[in-house]
Design brief:
Blueprint lengths: L16 H7 L15 H4 L1 H31 L5 E4 L3 E4 H27 L17 H18 L5 H13 L1 H7 L25 E5 L16 E6 L9 H8 L1 E5 L8 H6 L4 E5 L11 E3 L4 E3 L6 E3 L5 E4 L8 E2 L1 E3 L5 E3 L17
Antiparallel strand pairs: 1-2, 3-4, 3-13, 4-5, 5-6, 6-11, 7-8, 8-9, 9-10, 12-13
Helix pairs in contact: 3-4, 3-6, 3-7
């Protein structure tokens, strides 16, 4: 009997090309494994114990921050200690590093322990979607966020919430305390200069910074610019640069009839006016003077002051006039100061009244 093989239809093997085309992948999707509840999910005592452990970590973080601040205040910066295996190290640096490290580590460890034991661990697959989400997806995300917030127990587990807030609030204090290392507190140093030693009964002589000799009125001619410092200040002293940065004077002599400001004229002597040499913008030394206009120019940022009108600012970024020093002559005919500047010298700062 003949057999027509052309009409016989053979069955397709499992996993043929047609099936691949239908499903798009030759590998079956295994899906997510069945969710296995944690002990804290089914045992409230275990959940409470985990809550206490997380809270303890946050409390340790707070104590470490307090220890950071206490170490900064109490430990001498020059103290050296031996720490195995580091060797000889700064006691202050070691204490600050240790306490700050513990404070930050405990916040991180507490958050991880909280997430692994108390927050929901149910895996929710999500298909990739375009960057711009639809309204349905956005609403779904909002609902998932609300669900996650509720399942985290942040509102219900007050112990964790309060200790977390406390530790997070205290940690930034470590950085605030370190601001103290920006330098010594100014106290009244910004409001006083070396001229504060001068009084009506015991004035201070003006010393020419070029000749290092006391100055007399006849030494200063109309249109000249001369620089001076208080007597007793030595150019060889260790703090000379710090002191001269506030004490430096510039003296000009202007014809009395050209002085516009009456108060400025009273503080001067026979047309000789003594102003701070320190610019009121950022503290650069002023060294340029135009005798025809009586204008002093700061070379750093071109702030310009009218010395014939109380050194008011007529151009540039400076915020206020140059402070003026009251000068007279003593029994020897030398120019002397009878007190300090009425206003702080140099740039503006936040505590300054003007």
């Amino acid at each position: 009997m003949s057999h027509d093989m052309s009409e016989e239809k053979l069955p397709e093997p499992h996993g043929s090309a047609g099936e691949v085309a239908d499903h798009g992948s030759p590998f079956a999707d295994p899906g997510l494994p069945a969710h296995e509840p944690r002990r804290t999910d089914i045992d409230e005592k275990a959940a409470s114990r985990a809550e206490r452990q997380v809270s303890l970590m946050f409390v340790v973080s707070m104590l470490a921050t307090v220890g950071f601040i206490a170490s900064y205040v109490a430990i001498d910066p020059d103290k050296i200690v031996y720490i195995f295996p580091l060797g000889h190290v700064s006691a202050l640096n070691f204490a600050l590093g240790l306490t700050l490290g513990v404070a930050l580590f405990m916040i991180g460890a507490g958050a991880v322990h909280w997430a692994r034991t108390l927050m929901s661990d149910v895996e929710l697959p999500a298909e990739r979607h375009p960057i711009e989400a639809s309204d349905e997806v956005r609403n779904d995300v909002i609902e998932q966020f609300k669900t996650g917030a509720a399942e985290s127990g942040f509102g219900r587990r007050k112990m964790i919430r309060n200790t977390l807030i406390g530790s997070m609030a205290l940690v930034p204090l470590s950085g605030v305390v370190l601001l103290r290392d920006l330098g010594p507190l100014p106290e009244k140093k910004l409001k006083e200069t070396g001229w504060k030693e001068a009084t009506e009964t015991k004035p201070l002589q003006l010393i020419n910074m070029n000749t290092m000799q006391p100055m007399k009125p006849e030494d200063i001619i109309v249109g000249s610019l001369t620089f001076a410092m208080p007597e007793g200040l030595s150019t060889h002293s260790e703090d000379f640069q710090q002191r001269i940065a506030k004490d430096a004077l510039m003296l000009v002599r202007i014809a009395p009839e050209d002085i516009k400001d009456d108060k400025s004229k009273e503080l001067g002597f026979e047309g000789i006016l003594a102003y701070s040499k320190i610019c009121t913008h950022v503290g650069c030394p002023i060294s340029l003077y135009e005798q025809q206009t009586h204008h002093a120019l700061c070379p750093c940022h071109q702030s310009t002051f009218d010395l014939a009108d109380g050194a008011r600012v007529i151009f540039g970024p400076a915020g206020h006039p140059l402070p003026q020093l009251k000068i007279i002559t003593d029994e020897k005919g030398n120019l002397v100061a009878t007190g300090d500047f009425a206003e702080p010298v140099g740039p503006s700062y936040w505590e300054r009244a003007r």
